[in-house]
Write a structure and sequence with these properties.
The protein is an alpha/beta fold and 299 residues long. It has ten helices and nine strands. Bound molecules: zinc ion (ZN).
Length: 299
C-alpha cells in the first residue's frame, strides 16, 4: 500500500497533465466487456467510466446479439423513432440498426473505444443457456474472441453474472467468453470478473456459485469487488455516479424497463465476482484495480 502511495505521489510530481494526476495504478487498465444485448453494458457503466476517464484505461465491448428481440417494450420508442417498433416484424427489422446507434451513443458517454459485433439473432427470452449456444454460431465466435484477446492483451474481462434466473443469452455470452479465454496460455489471460447490480447496502444481492454444466463459471468463494454508484463528489457532495448510469440508459430510447429499474432502486452497487478460473494469482491485481476505481474522483 505504501509503495502504491509513493508511486502515485511520484506520478503526481512528474505529471504535467492534471487530468491524469490522480491515476493511482502503475499501468493503464485494459478491459474487454462481453455482453449479449445492446444495453447490458449499462450494468458496468460507472466502473467503465472511472476506468476510461479517471484511470486512463481502455474499454472495448464484444456484443453477441443484434438486439432485435427488444421490441417488447418499445411502445414509447414507436413515437420517438416514428416506427411501430413494438410490432414484432417491424421491431426485428429496424431494431438492430437503431440499437447499435443507441449503444454507441451510450458508449461515447463512458468512453468505450472499440466494438466487436457478432450479430447473433436475439431470438426470444429463455433461461436456457444450452439452447442459446446451439442457436448461435458459437464456435466461430469463440475463435474470434480468442484472437481479439490475444491481440489486445486485456487486463480484465467484464462478464454478465450467469446466475440461474438471468437471461440465457447473458449466460451464453459469459460461457463463450470464458471458452475463448481458456484457450490462451495461463500467463496471457485477462482476469475474468462477472457482474451484477446490488440495489443498495440492504440488498444482499443474488447468490452465485456456478452455472450448472459450466464449471469454468465457478466463482471463487468470498472474493468479490464492488463500486457503489452512490459515491458522492462535486460541489457540496451533491453529485454521484448514478448520473453516469442514467445517461447511458437514457440513450436506449427503443427500450424501457431498465430505465425504470434504475430509477426505482435506492442504490446501485456494481458487484463483481472473481472467478476461480483466474487462480489465486490474479486476486491482488483485481483488488488493487478496484481500490483505484473506488479511490479516484473527478478533479
Ligand atoms: Zn440483456
Amino acid at each position: 500500500m505504501m509503495k502504491k502511495m509513493l508511486l502515485s505521489l511520484s506520478i503526481l510530481l512528474i505529471s504535467t497533465l492534471s487530468v491524469f494526476s490522480q491515476q493511482p495504478l502503475d499501468y493503464k487498465p485494459k478491459v474487454l466487456m462481453v455482453t449479449a444485448h445492446p444495453d447490458d453494458d449499462a450494468l458496468f457503466s460507472a466502473t467503465v467510466w472511472k476506468t476510461t476517464q479517471l484511470l486512463d484505461g481502455t474499454v472495448d465491448l464484444a456484443l453477441m446479439t443484434n438486439g432485435e428481440g427488444g421490441y417488447t417494450y418499445s411502445t414509447l420508442g414507436n413515437y420517438y423513432y416514428g416506427l411501430e417498433l413494438d410490432k414484432e416484424e417491424i421491431g426485428r427489422e429496424y431494431l438492430p440498426g437503431i440499437r447499435k446507434k443507441e449503444l454507441i451513443a451510450g458508449g461515447d458517454i463512458v468512453g468505450i473505444r472499440d466494438y466487436f459485433f457478432f450479430d447473433q439473432k436475439d431470438f426470444y427470452f429463455t433461461l436456457d443457456v444450452e439452447k442459446t449456444l446451439t442457436k448461435w454460431n458459437t464456435e466461430p465466435i469463440v475463435d474470434r474472441l480468442e484472437e481479439i484477446m490475444q491481440e489486445e492483451e486485456y487486463d480484465f474481462l467484464f462478464l454478465l453474472l450467469p446466475f440461474d434466473q438471468f437471461h440465457g443469452h447473458h449466460k451464453a455470452a459469459t460461457v463463450i467468453a470464458l471458452q475463448a479465454m481458456e484457450r490462451l496460455p495461463k500467463n496471457e489471460r485477462p482476469i475474468a470478473l462477472a457482474s451484477f447490480i446490488r440495489r443498495g447496502p440492504d440488498d444482499p444481492g443474488v447468490e452465485f456459485s456456478v452455472l450448472e454444466g459450466h464449471p469454468n463459471t465457478k466463482a471463487m468463494d468470498g472474493v468479490t469487488f464492488e463500486f457503489d454508484r452512490n459515491q458522492t463528489f462535486g460541489a457540496n457532495e451533491r453529485l454521484n455516479y448514478t448520473l453516469i448510469a442514467h445517461w447511458v440508459i437514457a440513450e436506449h430510447k427503443s427500450q424501457g424497463t431498465m430505465q425504470m429499474r434504475t430509477q426505482n432502486s435506492v442504490g446501485n452497487i456494481e458487484k463483481y465476482w472473481y472467478l476461480e478460473i483466474n487462480g489465486e494469482g490474479g486476486i491482488e491485481k483485481a483488488s488493487t484495480y478496484f481500490e483505484a476505481v473506488n479511490a479516484v474522483q473527478p478533479d
